[in-house]
């Protein structure tokens, strides 16, 4: 996937992701302050606008960095800062890369997850978006077919949401609920799931054009 296609695919995926804003707002109201829907909607819209404005010669790293800046500037939430930091971390593994392979995507997801773990002071089992990112990074290891990789990412992200649902939230506002957080899906992990679902849904193969 070259930079031009990457730019288009990200914009198409985020346009679909925005449709999940109400669901994410409701999930976040149950575990947090209810602003995740706004964060995702405003951030996605800002990224779409920023990527449309990039020059044709923009590299994958340029695209990731522009996405990080736009998402962070769209709103001041903690999640926006974590996502922006994750995107910047991922952009660094794409230095000098012109065509994104599945292996490149795996390395990006791994770097993004590590960034969130470090900046958010979280670990696996804390019931956060990191559980989903780590699962996606693991699922992409060794994948060689784009369609199979997308299916694996969706399956891994979905499993992470279900697997952590019965855990107690241990980070952010959700942790304030203590035992009352048990049985509820983590909003951040769900947002990641909706993104990888959107990525799969907007692939050429899914559209029947490949």
Lay out the secondary structure.
Layout: H1 3-17, H2 21-31, H3 36-52, H4 60-74, H5 78-93, H6 102-119, H7 129-140, H8 146-165, H9 187-201
Helix pairs in contact: 1-3, 1-9, 2-3, 2-9, 3-4, 4-5, 5-6, 6-7, 7-8, 7-9, 8-9
What does this protein structure show overall?
By secondary structure, the chain is mainly alpha-helical. Helix content is 66%, strand content 0%. The chain has nine helices and no strands. It has helices spanning 3-17, 21-31, 36-52, 60-74, 78-93, 102-119, 129-140, 146-165, 187-201. The chain is globular.
Distance between the termini: 13 Å
Number of helices: 9
Helix coverage percent of residues?
55-70%
Report the CATH topology name.
Answer: Serine Threonine Protein Phosphatase 5, Tetratricopeptide repeat
Pick out its properties.
210 residues; mainly alpha; Serine Threonine Protein Phosphatase 5, Tetratricopeptide repeat
What's this, in brief?
It contains 9 helices and no strands. The chain is an all-alpha fold and 210 residues long.
């Amino acid at each position: 996937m070259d930079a031009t296609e990457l730019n288009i695919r990200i914009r198409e995926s985020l346009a679909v992701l925005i449709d999940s804003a109400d669901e994410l707002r409701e999930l976040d109201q149950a575990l947090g302050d209810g602003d995740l829907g706004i964060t995702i909607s405003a951030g996605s819209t800002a990224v779409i606008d920023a990527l449309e404005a990039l020059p044709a010669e923009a590299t994958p790293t340029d695209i990731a960095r522009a996405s990080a800046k736009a998402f962070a500037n769209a709103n001041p939430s903690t999640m926006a800062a974590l996502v922006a930091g994750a995107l910047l971390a991922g952009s660094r593994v794409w230095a000098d890369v012109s065509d994104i392979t599945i292996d490149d995507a795996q390395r990006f997801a791994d770097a993004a997850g590590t960034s969130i773990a470090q900046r958010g002071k979280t670990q696996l089992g804390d019931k956060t978006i990191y559980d989903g990112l780590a699962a996606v990074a693991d699922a992409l290891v060794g994948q060689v077919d784009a369609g199979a990789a997308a299916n694996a990412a969706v399956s891994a992200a979905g499993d992470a949401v279900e697997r952590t649902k019965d855990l107690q939230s241990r980070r952010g506002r959700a942790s304030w609920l203590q035992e009352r957080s048990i049985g509820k899906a983590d909003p951040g992990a769900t947002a990641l799931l909706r993104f990888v679902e959107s990525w799969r849904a907007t692939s050429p193969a899914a559209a029947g054009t490949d």
